[in-house]
Design goal:
Structural class: alpha+beta
Helix content: 40-55%
Number of strands: 21
Distance between the termini: 64 Å
Number of helices: 25
Length: about 900
């Protein structure tokens, strides 16, 4: 052969040797030498026949041949492995069902929580280029970073800023839809003209809030359009009466659209005239869209410069104020992100426990297959081939478990949606998508590899001499007691971590439940009503309605007392109706230095809520317009601003009204206003008959009769006064307290369910391993009994062996908990993350569950007949 051709031929042979690596190792072992020799001979013939060009063409043809045939060889071997794996699982139904169920529970829980995290936290908001949407807040000198914006400040930000393609303002308010059936209270959103352009979503039908001659336009939500108007396609232009004003329907938003509260049913044009408002009247929420190429940091710097200019121009209202700029997504999901990721970590622990369980099952099962593997190895099967067969079986188990888990995740997700409080954002956006399916498949695949790797590694290194014998002693050492013990230790440690987290959340929840909210929720009914401004425009009209309504309700049978308040406790709204005050005759403060929450109440409210009156007197019908201005302060305000003094008889000047100083006539007990986990804040009660400025009031009725029947009777009495009066949000006061605890109850229930699942899996794992070890040692136990060992000694021997692993797991879990438990600090109230009682209870409960799992096989061993045990030849199932 030409030397040059020989050199090319040698290169092609080395190239072909590399290509053979694409085939499975057992295929190369059996056919590789023959294929290499055939290629070598073919290269020589080609060189002699076609020269250099023929050799090059031979290399290309061979490359294509290998690329076409190697995957087929792999698939054929995979089909063989799968057929064999199916036969092995079919012949061991108890093992297969146990492993599949454990994996299905772990994978299903992970899939359900991942879909929550993906839908709420990961997926972009359903707006065009949602990553460019930002929320603008003002930052006050007291350190509150998310304060509403005043209309004049908003107008200045909008005019001076160049970083945004648009800035819009909105605020949510109540609206009353009158006519077309029963009066209905709606949550409305008052928006500036550019709102829908900034958000980037147009009405599904209609033109929106276009400014045209005639009645002003409103935009309906898809839900209101369907529910109230039956999805009438001719709705555009239809006249509606909202708060006794006439509006024309300008559009209907797409299904699923909401911005701000999910309950907004109608968008209305904001009567926007910045000159009408003070710069201290901060009530607007603001959304802005970044211009292309502008970063949030650049926009933030520009807004800071504008805020600094406003502080210089208007020091009375803007000195010390700044700007907070947040991505809209951070605003929507920021508060729940930590809870969801904690839950995702918790279900990850459950999956690891399930993997350890299945690995232990595979290890126990591998002992029975030692002879089979030894024979296969003696016949030429490589270690890689054995490992691949074992991994095929474990991955097949995991994929079947993943399929069952995917079905379980549907039910779990529906349960989560039913249990989730209304405060969970974007819950309606959680759905099945490609990422969720890919995640479930990837978790199943990874679970199969993780749970099968250790057993496959152990079984691929058999002792042929031992494996081909049938002695029990040889089987006993197979599978590695230390490895099974290590898996049990890890299961116990992980289940202890979950139990500890659940215990801390339960203690925190119980602590909140035991807190005194400052009122008695039992036996009280609440409802809310709106007084339309068109019919109740004057103070006289509003005061007359409040007094008349309370008198009629008090006269009903079974009603012990009734009263009204502007905002009920535990309904959120931090910063809402919060003002400043000064103490007349005091030298230590100017207006605005002292802050308080204002609540307008009627006579009888304190008694209806069972709020104690500590000093002074309650409001009466004589505290009305024209009488001496009076207020009642709560104990939190009295303690902070009148320490060691009697505040009754002192005078306060309230910042929101330029009226005469108001006399403190009483001190009421402190009430938790915003939520149970927030300490009581200073509060001042203003008599609503004296200052009837509030359109929306909540009625509290303490009654001894049936709540549902009383509610209907009260509705009838109020409708007798005004048949078009919207009455809504009717529920017991105890229900409002329960609603305030709903987010914490949700986290507690989920963590408790995961902890219970983890403990069950861990107990099954401990039981399985101890049963396996008892089976191994049954012959030894028979000898011990024959030599005089008592049943209690056998019992203690087995329990000791199992509890050693459990106690090691408990110790390891407690050490890891000391590092990880601080993650829960933000979810706890009144309980330290290092609470020793919870640590102790979790350790004792885990030890108790492990002990019960050990006792069942221990009692079986203690009752063993020595004659049967000495004859027994162990064959694990």
């Amino acid at each position: 052969m030409n030397p040059r051709y020989q050199k090319v031929s040698n290169l092609l042979e080395r190239f072909y040797g590399s290509l053979l690596l694409a085939y499975p190792s057992e295929f190369r072992h059996e056919y590789g030498a023959e294929m290499a020799q055939f290629f070598r001979d073919d290269c020589r013939r080609t060189a002699c026949r076609s020269g250099l060009s023929g050799l090059l063409w031979q290399g290309l043809r061979t490359l294509a041949d290998v690329a076409r045939s190697a995957p087929g060889v792999h698939m054929e071997i995979l089909r063989q492995d799968l057929r064999f794996a199916f036969r092995m699982l079919w012949n061991s139904p108890a093992f297969a069902l146990t492993a599949i169920l454990a994996l299905a529970l772990g994978i299903g829980a992970n899939s359900a929580i991942f879909r929550l995290v993906d839908g709420i936290v990961v997926m972009p908001l359903p707006f065009p280029e949602a990553d460019r949407l930002m929320v603008v807040w003002e930052k006050n000198p007291k350190g509150i970073d998310r304060n509403s914006v005043s209309p004049p400040n908003f107008a200045d930000y909008r005019a001076a800023s160049k970083s945004f393609s648009g800035i819009a303002a909105f605020y949510e308010d109540s609206a009353n839809l009158i006519g077309s059936g029963e009066p209905e209270h709606l949550l409305s959103s008052m928006v500036s003209p550019e709102f829908f352009d900034v958000v980037g979503v147009s009405p599904a039908i209609g033109a929106g809030l276009t400014a045209e001659a005639g009645a002003p336009k409103v935009v309906l939500s898809y839900g209101l359009w369907q529910r109230r108007f039956g999805g009438d396609p001719q709705i555009i232009g239809r006249a509606l009466r909202i708060d006794d004003k006439s509006y024309a329907v300008g559009g209907v938003m797409p299904a699923g659209f909401h911005f701000g509260s999910a309950d907004v049913a109608v968008w209305m044009p904001m009567p926007f005239d910045p000159a009408r408002f003070s710069r201290q009247a901060r009530f607007l929420s603001t959304v802005a869209r970044l211009r292309p190429g502008v970063s949030p940091a650049q926009a933030r710097a520009e807004l800071d410069a504008i805020a600094a200019g406003l502080a210089g121009s208007y020091p009375a209202s803007n000195r010390g104020w700044g700007v907070t700029l947040l991505p809209l997504k951070e605003q929507v999901v920021g508060e729940i992100r930590r809870s969801l990721f904690v839950l995702l970590g918790a279900v990850g622990f459950v999956l690891l426990i399930a993997c350890a369980n299945v690995a232990n099952l595979l290890l126990a099962r591998s002992a029975r297959r030692q002879g089979e593997i030894a024979i296969r190895t003696a016949l030429g099967a490589s270690g890689v081939r054995i490992v691949r067969q074992m991994l095929t079986e474990s991955v097949l188990l995991a994929l079947i478990g993943g399929g069952v888990g995917w079905a379980l995740s549907w039910a779990a997700l529906e349960m989560l949606k039913a249990l989730a409080p209304a405060a969970v954002p974007r819950l309606d956006e959680v759905s099945v998508n490609g990422w969720a399916i890919a995640f479930t498949f990837a978790v199943a695949l990874l679970t199969g590899v993780v749970s099968g790797l250790a057993p496959a590694w152990r079984i691929s290194r058999p002792d042929l001499n031992a494996g081909l014998k049938e002695g029990m002693a040889n089987r006993r050492s197979f599978g590695g007691h230390w490895l099974r013990g290590a898996l049990i230790v890890s299961e116990v440690a992980l289940s202890l971590l979950l139990l500890l987290g659940a215990g801390l959340l339960i203690r925190s929840f119980l602590h909140l439940q035991r807190l005194d909210p400052g009122f008695d929720p039992d036996g009280a009914l609440t409802l809310t009503l709106d007084m339309p401004a068109s019919r109740y425009a004057s103070d006289v009209q509003r005061a007359a309605f409040v007094q008349h309504a309370i008198e009629r309700v008090r006269a009903l049978p079974g009603v012990a007392s009734a009263g009204m308040i502007s905002t009920l406790p535990l309904t959120g709204g931090e910063g809402f109706n919060r003002f400043g005050f000064t103490v007349e005759g005091s030298e230590d403060g100017a207006a605005g230095d002292h802050r308080f929450y204002a609540r307008w109440i009627s006579p009888g409210y304190l008694g209806s809520m069972a709020i104690p009156l500590i000093q002074g007197r309650d409001f009466t019908d004589r505290d009305r317009q024209g009488s001496s201005p009076a207020v009642i302060v709560d104990a939190a305000l009295a303690r902070r601003y009148f320490p060691n003094q009697n505040p009754v008889g002192r005078f306060l000047r309230l910042s929101y009204a330029k009226t005469a100083p108001r006399e403190i006539i009483g001190v009421a007990g402190e009430v938790r206003l915003v939520s149970l986990d927030r300490e009581p804040a200073p509060q001042i009660y203003v008599p609503v008959l004296q200052e009837p400025r509030i359109q929306t009031m909540s009625l509290v009725v303490r009654n001894s009769a049936d709540a549902a029947a009383t509610a209907e009777t009260i509705r009838g009495e109020l409708r007798a006064i005004d048949r078009d009066l919207p009455i809504y949000d009717v529920q017991p006061l105890a229900g409002r307290v329960a609603q305030s605890l709903a987010p914490r109850r949700f986290s507690m229930l989920l963590m408790s369910l995961l902890a219970a699942l983890a403990m069950i899996l861990a107990a099954v794992g401990v039981y399985g391993v101890i049963s396996y070890m008892v089976g191994e040692r049954l012959h030894e136990i028979g000898i011990r009994v024959a030599l005089g060992a008592r049943p209690v000694e056998i019992l203690l021997l087995v329990v000791k062996q199992g509890m050693q692993h459990a106690l090691l797991g408990i110790a390891g879990g407690l050490l890891v908990a000391l590092l990880l438990v601080r993650v829960l600090a933000g979810l706890l109230y009144g309980v330290s993350p290092m609470d020793r009682w919870t640590f102790g209870a979790a350790a004792v409960l885990t030890a108790g569950v492990a002990l019960m799992a050990c006792l069942i096989p221990a009692f079986r061993a203690a009752r063993a007949d020595p004659i049967d045990a000495l004859r027994f030849r162990w064959t694990p199932e």
